[in-house]
């Protein structure tokens, strides 16, 4: 076989491989969309705290203030108000339902993916690789909490847009203003998404312009303070619930952190391998070109000192072309490692929101970095098919499987148990409820006593004395919590509840001793297939309602 035939044969093989790769990506894309549609349209909870979001929106529909002290602790919302304000006009038409809330979340997850695709293309990543990166991000966002009726999807979109709009518009003044506004909106959607602001302030100062950094930081500070004053005047418990509550209940569990890092390493093993291989190629190329021959500490120190600019106002502090995506990845990893990743209860959520977009962007943007060595160029072409494509598919498969592993299990998706619970609840008027029943109580227009977040209201206080007079007094929080506990305890003793339907884990302190006044008449298990959570609901009725021989 002559050389021309060999080259033609290799070219045909490449086309077939890429065509096969494209078909696999298309298959995963369709499957992810199908699964996401299943999540949006599932009529019952996908996660045990999901119902709390519906209650906040429902209060807005009734013209009530969801952060008024009088609505505490039942209506406590530890996230933010923006998601509910966005859902509100749609809920006025179709009601405060899971479908409406999850559909809004879905829209912003998809918008985040579209934005990520645009950013990848701006970084000269080819269309096929960009599509694969978007699918990996999409699969990550369908894992557990982001796709349910929560503000995560909206918050992530605002966070990413706040960060990337600045580079898209080449750090113009208007882009900085828009970025600050988006960052503040992200803060009032879910507080930790305000990280976009410190990310940009520090990057601008170090690598773009001290002048722009000061302008950006000052504008962000003024806007945050101004809006905080306005929000606090309107929603009296807003900051104690959405900010100080998180500080007070946050855990510092190192095993939680290491467990998530292990999962991330497994799910992203293919992408990590790609990163290692292509970084090694880049280092080898520099070594062969002689760029690393004079790589000594003293040389690096001297070079760094020469690049420091302290006094020129419109110049960066460090005149170094440092990749923005790598910088954001480093800051996100530090935030995850030292704080967010140690909090029990949000497994992988922080990692997928803060680390994944920047990690993927940096790795994919390095795939086509020019090499000088002809030998390495040929080797990279080989690795493209031997490591890159399989690595992408491995991570995509693992992430897809981790998000959707219960979708085909009848024991998880069977709705008969939920329908039975609905029927049981319809026979009672006043139910001391489990948190998983909130949506059903709203549908049946019955009072709600516990959303799952309710018990956290007792931690909505602050230790900074200078905040006295600015925020609602801690004493008012304590009194409201005590009133709630006393009211529930009294209702139990007086057998005012037609039924108590809770799980054994939800028998809170204020329900202590309720078995003296109520008798269990039924048990039923329900499952939330997306998160793999189950609840064994116990149905208790007042002893006074029982026939004498049944007491």
How would you sum up this structure, described in words?
The chain is mainly alpha-helical and 551 residues long. It folds into 2 domains: 38-404, no CATH class; 411-550, no CATH class. The protein has 20 helices and 4 strands. The chain has a 4-stranded mixed β-sheet. A hairpin with a 4-residue loop joins β3 and β4 (533-542). α1 packs antiparallel against α4, α2 crosses α3 and α5 runs antiparallel to α15 (349-365). It is globular. The mean pLDDT is 90.
Write the layout of secondary structure elements.
Blueprint: H1 3-41, H2 51-61, H3 82-94, H4 98-122, H5 127-141, H6 152-168, H7 173-187, H8 196-208, H9 210-234, H10 238-249, H11 254-267, H12 269-288, H13 297-306, H14 324-338, H15 349-365, H16 374-404, H17 410-413, H18 416-426, E1 431-433, H19 438-443, H20 474-493, E2 499-502, E3 518-528, E4 533-542
Parallel strand pairs: 1-2
Antiparallel strand pairs: 2-4, 3-4
Helix pairs in contact: 1-4, 1-5, 1-16, 2-3, 4-5, 4-6, 5-15, 5-16, 6-7, 6-8, 7-9, 8-9, 12-16, 14-15
